[in-house]
Amino acid sequence: MHMFKTKTQFKSPQTARVMQRDFAPFAMILAFAAMIVLSATQAFARPDSFADLAERLSPAVVNISTTTIVRSGGGNRDLPQFPEGSPFEDFFKDFGDRDQTRRAQSLGSGFIIDEAGIVVTNAHVVENAEQITLYLANEETYEAEVIGRDAKTDIAVLRFDPKGDEITAVEFGNSDELRVGDWVLAIGNPFGLGGTVTSGIVSARGRDIGSGPYDDYIQTDASINRGNSGGPLFDMDGKVIGINTAIFSQTGGSVGIGFAISSNLATQVVDQLVEYGRTRRGWLGVFIQEVTEEIADSLGVDAAGALVSNVNEDGPADTAGLEAGDVIIRFDGKDIEKMRDLPRIVAETDVDAMVDVVIIRNGEEVTLQVRLGELEQAENGGKLLEAPADDVRETFTDLGFAVEQLNEELAGEYGLEADEKAVIVTEVAPNSPAAEKGLQAGDVIVRFGQNRISTVEELRAGIMSAKEAERTGVLMLIQREGQNRFIQVPFAKN
Known about the structure:
CATH class of the largest domain: Mainly Beta
């Protein structure tokens, strides 16, 4: 009954004071530890309220209403048919020939980044708009005009005249500092309701949703619905770290997966649209593809970087000495982990900038200096490298295809220009490794691995070398219908 009583009740006052003195440091340690646990718990807890943040930021968020004039000719409509000479024929013909005009309205969101009247929104919000009206939190309305649009990133910049009114502006933050799990706040105009605030967390970063070549989306579970497009996504410091753009939903409503353009991608586009009225992106002048495990094995490199499949003739890369087969692993000091990293990094680099490009060529690192061009002024495509003609034919049984030197007769048969001289695939065996990898008769082999191919003999030598090195297959750059692509064909297993 009494075995759990504290012994201190039987001690003398002098003994009790000694024990209090001995345990004092321990008590301080316990108290300090409790404070740490409490602070950590508070740090990871949901904020008590977003009210102060919402009150401060909402005046900078605008509701956008656009009006588009939709014209449709009568010829596009289904009208009743009457016999020739019928009294109704002329009436319905005149009615059908009239141009029909109607006004289509759409709603979106945006945010003010400059008190002079600069607004950022999505490009699709103001696409083809003939009239743009902004509704601010102060219940004032303003007419706006488009300074510039960029369809590739779905960003647009608008300008309106504040007419001396006091307005609130917000600034971009650094989206690279975001961590998965950070709190975010979305403010916008869903379903035309206006001034709607939702909260959530960063669910993922660096999402590629296939909307453009520079996808770098923040995924969030903050409720984003129709009408939120173009609105800001804020961090807990009140900085814009994203532009709400898209949702993933089968019903059109929020299901907890929304996407926002990262602020670090948006800021440069916005600055260029404000300054030039259009974008001015860096241009390297290469076509690239992913370095798969199979391709990496054939080249003897790591499965990282961007594989150059074609170089624009006389473009920046061509002038600097880049070649098809080079693997770009670093650009302007930035590592290229995945193929899709390169287009975004190049686009973000200033036009006319001289940058170092680190490549892997024949198993060795090579650094080349490239002066970037401007993407918007560049011409797409490239020309096939010429090679001397020869009447040689070769069949590679263990790969499953045959080739010949391209000549005028073969060029005519496969619809190629007669002056294009190279090695052409003339036969692919059914169910062979080449057939399984998609090689087709009429494909022109431009390179074997990282080396240019101009004769069948060069191709034969390359394949023999791959066998001697005990490679699992061969990597070839082929051209089909004007497009270049690397194909890795494995050797048949015995």
